[in-house]
Amino acid sequence: MAKKTISIGIMCYNEEPNIPLVYKALSQIANKEKKYNFEFIFVDNCSTDSSRNEIEKIAKIDKRITGIFLSRNFGPEASSQASLDHATGDAFILYEGDMQDPADKITDFIREWEKGFDVVVGVRTSSEEGIFMSSIRRTYYKIFRAISNIDIPVNAGSFGLLDKKAMLAIKNLPEKYRFYRGLRAWIGFKTAFVIYKRRKRQRGKSSYNFFSYLHHAERSFFGFSYLPLDIIVYLGLFLVILSFIWILTYIFSYFFFGQNIENSRLILFAVIFFGGINLLAISIIGKYVQVMVEETKARPVYIVEKILKK
Questions:
Q1: CA distance linking residue 172 with residue 218, whole number of Å
Q2: What is the three-class DSSP state of 260?
Q3: What three-state secondary structure class fits 258?
Q4: How many whole angstroms separate alpha carbon 151 and alpha carbon 144?
Q5: Cα–Cα distance measured from residue 159 to residue 197, given in angstroms and rounded to the nearest whole number
Q6: Which residues are CB-contacts of 282 (< 8 A; sequence separation ≥ 6)?
Q7: CA 299 to centroid of chain Cα atoms
Q8: In sequence order, which residues have a C-beta less than 8 Å from that of residue 69 and are 6 or more positions away?
Q9: What is the largest CA-CA distance in the chain?
Q10: For residues 177 and 291, is the Cβ–Cβ distance under 8 A?
Q11: CB count in 10 Å sphere of residue 9
Q12: Among the listed ranges 60-69, 172-181, 227-236, which one has the minimum average pLDDT value?
């Protein structure tokens, strides 16, 4: 009976010092899991350091390695999609090249897969990151879970395993405005969870900053939740009723108490308040329109400059 193949997609952007370590760690796992064949798909998101050279070096000596070099930096979602598109295995594991997720947990993913689970999700119980970023990350996941139309576990990153049918389900989705973690939860299937502690980055410097996380959060919110639109509807209804009561109160005061309607400060406040509400509503609607525009353009999620395989 032919061995099953496990594909591991490694997302890389300026990970020059980590790529040899990633290769070594994944090779050790492959040597232990002898009943499976492995393929390692390194996706370089147009790094500005020597990440590409490091991938080319290991690709020359190991036929299990495929190097995917994108024509420019299309973002982390493009990297995950590129590795998914080029995976040929019976299972797919997504791994980030910064090595903050412990590679040895891949063995635990495989054990859960062998039990019959189609999706295995890595859940971070704690992190060695700074308190500020850890708090921001936890808060984001809680908010996203509360407002989204899917059930996504708190602190579940991209690190995890997909069976082939789950892999094909995500791969064949036509949408361009992608959020991998959300899509993984959306497709369903029998799911297991593996908990682990996320480590601090050992080498190199993260290309992510607060605004990068904010942009990522925006992608998830507007891709998997209609709550902002619902809030606009109910807030608009509330303000209309409030304004109507306000007008009636002034009319009543004028006719029954002779009070003049000349409160310029109150009127100015009302104009600013309702103007801000209108601007917020238009902005939220505009974000959803932006998603629609991106979808109708039908541009590819990424463009490959070169594929390297021994």
A1: 23
A2: coil
A3: coil
A4: 9
A5: 12
A6: none
A7: 19
A8: 44, 46, 52, 55, 304, 305, 306, 307, 308
A9: 95
A10: yes
A11: 27
A12: 227-236
> What's the CA gap between 162 and 149, in Å, rounded?
21
Can you tell me the distance from the alpha carbon of 11 to that of 13, in angstroms, rounded to the nearest whole number?
Answer: 7
Amino acid identity at 133: M
Q: How far apart (Å, rounded) are the C-alpha atoms in residues 14 and 277?
A: 42
Write out pLDDT tens, residues 162-172: 999 999 998 88
- Closest by CA to 54, choosing from 204, 208, 207, 206, is 204
Mean pLDDT over 213-239 rounds to 64
Q: Please identify which residue in the block is written with the tokens 């009302």.
A: 270
Integer Cα distance of 73 and 208 in angstroms = 13
Q: Which two tokens stand for residue 27?
A: 């090779």
Two structure tokens written together for 267: 């009127």
**Nearest to residue 86, comparing CAs of 62, 110, 67?**
67
Domain boundaries, the chain: 4-225+300-309, 227-297
CB 198 within 8 A of CB 124: yes
Find the helix packing angle between 210-224 and 264-297, rounded to 10°.
80
More confident position, 257 or 55: 55
Structure tokens at 138: 């936890």
What sections of 173-258 are H helices per DSSP?
180-186, 210-224, 227-257
262: which 2 tokens? Answer: 């000349």
Upper half-sphere CA count for residue 105 (Cβ side, 13 Å): 22
CATH for 4-225+300-309?
A: 3.90.550.10
Q: Which two tokens stand for residue 64?
A: 């299990």
Each residue's pLDDT tens digit, 8-33: 999 888 888 888 898 999 999 988 88
